Amino acid sequence: MAEVVLDKINKRYENGFHAVKDLDIAIADGEFLVLVGPSGCGKTTALRMVAGLEDITSGTMTIGGKVVNTLPPKDRDIAMVFQSYALYPHMSVADNIAYGLKIRRMDAAEISRRVERAAQMLELGNLLDRKPKQLSGGQRQRVAMGRAIVREPQVFLMDEPLSNLDAKLRVQMRAEIAQVQQDLNVTTIYVTHDQIEAMTMGDRVAVMKAGVLQQIGDPQHLYDHPDNIFVAGFIGSPPMNMALGRVEAGNGDLAVRLGAATLALPGAVAAARPALAGYAGRDVAVGIRSEDMEDARLARGGDDLPRLSTTVTMTEALGSEIVVHFVLDAPKVVTEDTKALEKDAHSSDVALHDRGTRFRASFGPRSRVRNGDEIEVVVDTERVHFFDPETGAAIRS
Amino acid sequence: MTATNEVVRLGSAKGGWFRQFGWRHLVGLLALAFSLFPILFVISASLNPLGTLSSSTLIPPDTGLENFTKLFGTTSFSRWFLNTLLIGVLSAVLSMFISAAAAFAFSRHRFKGRRIGLVSLLLVQMFPQFLAIVALYLIFAEITDLYPAIGLNTAWGLILLYLGGALGVNTWLMKGFFDTIPKDLDESAKVDGATHSQIFFGIILPLVVPILAVTGLLGFINTVNEFLIASVFLTDDSSKTAAVGLYGLISGERNANFGVFSAGAVILAIPTVVLFQFLQRYIVGGLTSGAVKG
């Protein structure tokens, strides 16, 4: 067990590509930290620098208080699980798991004891004599985990270990890995591009974009208080709805105009964001999570609730909720962040042109809205997010 | 649906059996005859006691093993044969190992001069070996003066020469194969604590056995059949390889010893055939399947 500290870590490749920029993260002893971001954001590079598989251009990396910048991987007391599992195809499962121990000339009795225990933990007991190619994807994944566990290292490093599994297995292995990590209480750095894995597994989540750390915190904090448009759009599924609105100040209270509608903001909202008043008369990016909107006919609290009027373009009934798509007559937010998010999702609302912004709202299952219905959408204004449309940063103090 | 009991055969729609499949058999048989003819001819010549080129026919009028007894009785063939095996096996094994080590470096490591090294290996291969034969002879004449043990007329000198010759092709061949083995395996072993040599011997070599078998076999065949350089380097009767020695049998008087020559050629083919049979099961791909992904 040990804490891992990345202090102003940089990675610049020989071709000039700056993959990781001034990365500062301190991972506490026994913590499960998830590094998440779109592909090419430098998260894997950062992990490989911790592993010692990639040189550190500048900065200081310490594991357990020891500077490891120039230490080879074998002297860092880490174990890594690869995206491809990297099992040795010519060795049996038992040999695969024991390889790292044999290399370190560990006592044979101790090796078999540890392999036994890891196999039991991961339910690999009856597969120990098999070769990797005789295993299913999930079993291979477990062997890769076993190989890391038996080493009893100070740090686990996992590089998208679940991305080769099918969706159902992924959910199951997600829980198993989290359980194993909890039982062993080993400091773990876990890289993924899947924000659901990040949310469900991490003690803390670090969101990266283009080599730069965007925000780090516990998953709920990231979800509730994103620091910028990128984090807001990346964390959460479906992603946060975002449109340009205009802040209006009148009789001491603030309101925001979204297209044809004007949403009055409660005093607490403005009080929590002193800087918002400074945006009066200007455009801001308004972010609304899908669950913070509700069918007006289901909402309790009468007619004076802030609401949007719109037409339903599509509904997705999920049983526990209905995801309602509609186009809001407010301009789209276009910043560096939204471009990066669209690129990651391989989507863009080109078809909408200037007609507005596509929104998704989660209605209660009792809602009866259908395609083409004219509806009123109630917005929980206490949970609306505001971002600077130029910098993308959250508007707070 | 009028004819209910009619069976429709695949491929019966147009043309006959010959147009569909038969012509391929014909081509195959022609190719077979074309490639088997020389072998049959040599075997029949080796069994033909008359032993001259002009008297050789595909089916000899008389058969016997006189040529074989003559081969071992009157020439140093057994010595030549052993020389050939020694040189063939050693240079095949050594070149296999050296090329594997070179391929490992070229495939796995990034260093200054890697690209230039690869390209020059390829370029050097493009020149026919006999262009260099004069230079090689002069070099080895010098070496013979200084270190007679690895000079002219020694198996060791020739092995050294063959090693250099085979390195280029084999390295390229192997590098291509090494590149197909996921780098994750190396990195995983590295994290597990393995050194470069442990990765090379423990992880990579077991996975490249097919290409080792191929290069080893090719190396052996090439060395056994190599004549030009061996004939220049090996002039002592006792140091000759079988190819050089056998050539000596038919180069002097006109085709007098053709039967004996054929007998030697037949025996010389045996080790290659045996080796191929032995390595055949290794010359299969798919060993790395299951290494990564689900």
From TrEMBL, chain A:
One of its GO terms (molecular function) is ATP binding. Keywords: ATP-binding, Cell membrane, Membrane, Nucleotide-binding, Translocase, Transport. The keyword Magnesium does not apply. PROSITE patterns: ABC_TRANSPORTER_1, ABC_TRANSPORTER_2. The keyword Chloroplast does not apply. Signal peptide: none annotated. One of its GO terms (cellular component) is ATP-binding cassette (ABC) transporter complex, substrate-binding subunit-containing. It holds the Pfam family OB_MalK. Residues 4-235 form the ABC transporter domain. InterPro entries: AAA+_ATPase, ABC_transporter-like_ATP-bd, ABC_transporter-like_CS, ABC_transpr_MalK-like, ABC_transpr_MalK/UgpC-like, Mo/tungstate-bd_C_term_dom, NA-bd_OB-fold, OB_MalK-like. GO terms for biological process: carbohydrate transport. PANTHER family: MALTODEXTRIN IMPORT ATP-BINDING PROTEIN MSMX, TREHALOSE IMPORT ATP-BINDING PROTEIN SUGC. This is ABC transporter ATP-binding protein. The lineage of its organism: Bacteria, Bacillati, Actinomycetota, Actinomycetes, Streptosporangiales.
TrEMBL record, chain B:
This is Sugar ABC transporter permease. The lineage of its organism: Bacteria, Bacillati, Actinomycetota, Actinomycetes, Streptosporangiales. It is found in: Cell membrane. Residues 81-279 form the ABC transmembrane type-1 domain. GO terms for molecular function: ABC-type maltose transporter activity. Belongs to the binding-protein-dependent transport system permease family. MalFG subfamily. It is a multi-pass membrane protein. GO terms for cellular component: plasma membrane. Keywords: Cell membrane, Membrane, Sugar transport, Transmembrane, Transmembrane helix, Transport. The chain crosses the membrane at residues 26-47, 80-106, 118-140, 155-178, 199-221, 258-279. GO terms for biological process: maltodextrin transmembrane transport. PROSITE patterns: ABC_TM1.
